[in-house]
Amino acid sequence: xxxxxxxxxxxxxxxxxxxxxxxxxxxxxxxxxxxxxxxxxxxxxxxxxxxxxxxxxxxxxxxxxxxxxxxxxxxxxxxxxxxxxxxxxxxxxxxxxxxxxxxxxxxxxxxxxxxxxxxxxxxxxxxxxxxxxxxxxxxxxxxxxxxxxxxxxxxxxxxxxxxxxxxxxxxxxxxxxxxxxxxxxxxxxxxxxxxxxxxxxxxxxxxxxxxxxxxxxxxxxxxxxxxxxxxxxxxxxxxxxxxxxxxxxxxxxxxxxxxxxxxxxxxxxxxxxxxxxxxxxxxxxxxxxxxxxxxxxxxxxxxxxxxxxxxxxxxxxxxxxxxxxxxxxxxxxxxxxxxxxxxxxxxxxxxxxxxxxxxxxxxxxxxxxxxxxxxxxxxxxxxxxxxxxxxxxxxxxxxxxxxxxxxxxxxxxxxxxxxxxxxxxxxxxxxxxxxxxxxxxxxxxxxxxxxxxxxxxxxxxxxxxxxxxxxxxxxxxxxxxxxxxxxxxxxxx
Length: 493
Prior knowledge:
With 493 residues, the protein is of the alpha/beta class.
């Protein structure tokens, strides 16, 4: 669509959640430097195992799944993806390179997103299939402000035209400051634009106000919400009745009992000797005004830890999670903690998940084409992850549309400007509004605002059902899918 709109002169201030993201889940567990520049592929003669004419995902995919369908679509209707996998681009200048910053290392802030960041590779392959000559250059920021600044400096040396910072947390300000000094445009797929950020920086993630409004909707009228602060703090705009701190795993002993007591629920039993006795929570006096809902705020890894603990209690109130639950690391964390993926899990966010591909509208076709790109790349035996230390098949289940769209947006800006000079690319990006016809897999993006997300932030429900739209994972594990669904029902009280 590429509608011309005025470019913003500076980033719109938006509050950062300040979440501390713990536990690396993704392409690497190493905390050392990860430096990778993907070699340019020849523009013809690729040996990619795709069907003849495989620039289009043609055959209808019929999947039976319990999801919320649009009112005008019959449940279980087959969905045909008619958008091409290949993304045509004009004659891009020679040397078009997009930088990608990821966070590696166990416990590093922002490391929960390095699996999702692999969607950048899908964008690269789809653009290559469309005839574009581009490359990705990857750097690891280590989850620190200094590391983020160093990662930008390294990418400047590699001659990148723009940067996707595929991380989150306070440390990303180091990258934004360094990018502003270098005149490089930056796109943040997993974090809002931090307050006071300077330079050409855009976020395709929900802003804090939209997230707070959606969380309030998800809580469905709860008036005494218990915030379990697992490192993310209180979301902006959400009315909180009481707060229980759970910022580190060291304090998790007794957390489920405390939450059960504060919500008037049945606490988990504990064993003493050979007998199962009443817990400390049962021995304490019940609270006079028990909370009617629970909101857990934190990184994907901490959300998984807390949810696993809460599953041991018979909570009588709904539990809502902050948007980091949409990270693939949340699913991995639940599995590692031995928790169930089939329980009632609710968060908020834009509709970018695989379940959208089951819809028969433009959004469904866009996500279907993206997933077709995931399958095409996974069929290439030479395809590797962003840091060149694992085959792409090992991360194909985590690659998401948000990092894909960030790369596509920067390439469309290069195309519009006809230049790889960062200033020109940033100016061009600020004039773009992009949608499905431009190769965007998720909601429409309007870069006339620093918060570019054009789609609605909605209530999302989780399912562990395998839709069969991605290659089977190497380890046979199943990841959660998120789909738009109804809000929770608060406890009566």
